[in-house]
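REQUEST ID: PR-0412
SUBMITTED BY: lab tech R.K.
PRIORITY: routine
TASK: structure prediction, single protein chain
INPUT:
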Amino acid sequence: MKKRNNKSEEAFHNEWARSITISDIDPIRQFEGPTSPEYRYAANLLKPIKGKKILILGCGLGEEVVYLAKKGAKIFAIDISKEMLTFTHKLSLHYGLQHNIQLFHVAAENISFPQESFDAIFACNLLHHINLKKGINKIYKVLKTDGTAIFLEPLAYNPIINVYRKMASDVRTDSEHPITYKDIELIKQYFPNFMHREFHFSTLLIFIWFFVGLRIHPNKERYWKKIIHEGRKYKTVFTILHKIDNLILTLIPWLASLYWVIVLKATKKKK
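STATUS: complete
OUTPUT:
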């Protein structure tokens, strides 16, 4: 694992943001589509959403920002990339939600909001990019007592996904560090009131189909975006595979480490 370089991280994400158009993004499909159960599950963990003051860390292209603002939350969102923030602002204008959203150009490890500022914190694919110890400490401080932090992150252990990561070297940063159980133990030090659920094991067969059947190289198209964007096309097979995944978690829970995505829910309690 290489040390995080904020300048290179910003440059990478700036370039990504410049390659995207508004028509490429569908916040509703990301959270409610047939191939994104982890997002639907994460949003349910935040309920009730309306009226909450939510901090979104690493807002990226703005799907989470728009979706949660559309559900009635007051959104504060940060990102390391100015271009990502510019795109998120454009997306919020497109949906008429700009008045419920405030954007800040800052790295997650360097947030400086007052303590106990937010009812909830939401982060998708953020923790595996940052200095986790420094970031979790800041997250803990700005979250209100009894507030909830929700994280969606890739796990480190699936060999298929690890091969995919190596092949997809042009569409990710080389300082990424997918979440390990050691990282989870660090989070628990701050948030003893903690739960998690894993997603995507059998469903990874669709990724294999993208490569073997459709001959799409991971550097040419982000598989995890493609499967959401084309959710209706893969709905039937995905639904079957997702049911198999749920059954495996019930019958063979120790296989959870081989799932691709973990959703973490951490609640701040008085010490």
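NOTES: The longest strand covers residues 143-154.
REVIEWED BY: pending
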